[in-house]
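User: Structure tokens for this complex, please. No commentary.
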Amino acid sequence: MKSQLLSVFAGAAFAWGALAAQAAAQTKEITFWSHWAAEWPKRNFVESAIADFEAKNPGTKVKATWYEKNALYAALKTALRAGQAPDIFYAEPDQVEYLENGFLLDLSELNWDAVEPWAKEVWTYNGKPYGLPIEAWTVELYYNKKMLDELGVKLPENLQLSPDAFLDVVKKAKAKGITPMSLGAGDRPFTGAQLVHEALLKKLGVEDYSKLLAGKLQWSDPRVVEALTWVRSLTDAGLLPATFTTMKLAESHIYFHTNPGALTFLNGSFYTSRAFNPVDKGGQPADFPLGIMQYPAVPGAVCNECRTITVGGSYVANAETEHKAEVIKFLNSFLTPDLGNRWLENVKVQTGIKSDPSQLKDKQAAEYFAMIAKTNAGTKYHFGLPIQVMSGKPKEVFTQVFNNAFPAGNISVEDAIKEMEAAY
Amino acid sequence: MPTFRANLLRGGVRQPWGTIVAFLLPAITFYVALTAYPAVRTIWNSFHKVLPRREEFVGIANYSELIQDEIFWKAVRNTVTWASVSPVIEVTVALLLALALYAKVPGARFLRVAWFTPVLMSYIVVGILWMWIYNYDWGPLNVLLRAIGLGKFAQPWLGSPDTALASLIVVTSWMWVGFNMVVLLAALHSLPKDVVEAAELDNCGWLAKLVFVIISLIRATLLNLVVLSFIGKMKIFDLVWITTKGNPLWSTETVSTYVYKRAFEWTTFDLGYPSTIAMVWFVIVLGAVLLLTWLFRMREKLEY
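Assistant:
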């Protein structure tokens, strides 16, 4: 009797093991590491895309692990070296080290017709595309409509103030005890530099600006000196808060819309990912009179309609993945107009996936993208922030000088130029 | 009765090699894996370009580059300044506080706990706390300055190249004074009473007693604390990373933060150059500690 029972148990265990092994063999698991652990609109979007994909592909599971950006980057650097990186992971286009060391899978097989051409271009390396550009953003100058009205300032039709008019606004705001522009460089290597690089871009135009960042145009070029001198005239007039050097990105949002309140805020169009949250989670007040104007015209500029557009959060695939077909299939599942619009609706930030903002049902999102469309009408774009285009020492010096010290008034125009000249 | 050594010499006792190996192996394994190998590997890396899947011998190219690296030398200057100034402040203030407690000032027990508390906090907490204190708009320091009519001195303490490093030195001094104070207090309590009493019987004044009796007797402790503080500041990383990340204009860049940036933030996988910085810095720190030891001529009494 005892031996019979044992036989039954052994048989059952064997059958269960065989079934489990068969199921495991049939189900393939894609590992996926992503930033945005605490950025819920973005995370919800990706999780809904994963759920949709798994429902349509029962044989494939996506095992997602969520990180904050710095922790993710540190983990990836170790995992990639050790050959233990996930199949798909979050990356941004400035991470050229992944490309240079052959860690990324060529994604030519994706449905690139569903991606904005400029977004594909940002991720193209030696003629091949390597990243799925999910998040995209432009540099925008937000303002408080009520405060601007109270200063008696009317914006022109093209929403761009002249250099003198903008300086006048800065002085008027300062005289009334209002900080003219909220901006902080405390925890990001690019936020403070926006003030400078948008001026340089407009002054030089896209081609010469690209040459400047690549070290093919001297930083001592008179046009560069003029642009920097103009920026300095604004900061000398009290444009920025005294806490600029240590203010963090999240704090600069609050500083603008809530406490103490600033007239303008120079920020990426991802402003919405914080400001459109509920007030108790750092969002702007419900009745906040948000407006968007153009970055002011720069004296003697050749391209006042120029501005920076960049790709942010993207997904790339591990070149050593054992599930290439599933990886391609999963990434392709993002490339539909429906997913593009779902991103716009939920995240309220631009995307590299082709989408149609006119179809948005969410009123706040629709109004926001209408404002973005208006300020971006006729814009000529430069793709990428300086820190995405530069690398090594020029990038480090640019960050130290133009993200922090120069806007804060801690270094002169001449010394800033000397530092940059010496960096190449 | 023949001794163990005599037996050994005669070959009467066999070496218990199995036991020796069994006892030493765990320690040697840990030492080799976690100390010796990383150290040797760092030296090896410093002569190579170390990229994933490939390594390329570059001779002394990394060292040549380092000599011309202005950011590295700025980091060296900041770190050496920090490591030179901090021990003096910490040990001096700690000695004064320890003497106050030794003299049993009112509230001594409370003050001992209060002064020691900062060292119990992590650099993360301390960094955030002092970022609040140094905040330009509402930080207590600037609020106080404005309240007493010194508003013109209010400034973004961590945001200006002129004040950022000094502000951080104040933070580490505040943090470590308590630790030094407790060690010195223990040293004061262990002073030989007869020597102190003899000095008092000889009508020795308080200053002379302090300088010629007390400080002389705790000199070894003082020097140990100076050297420990010096070594700690030569390696400082956490506080800078939390508060300024080396900004503004590298005015708070330390060698440790620069190594980290070069290893993990400079859009490269190369570990050769960061290893070179680590090697050079190790040699400099070792040399400085040996120099301090020689200068103090207290080698036999220092315990670090």
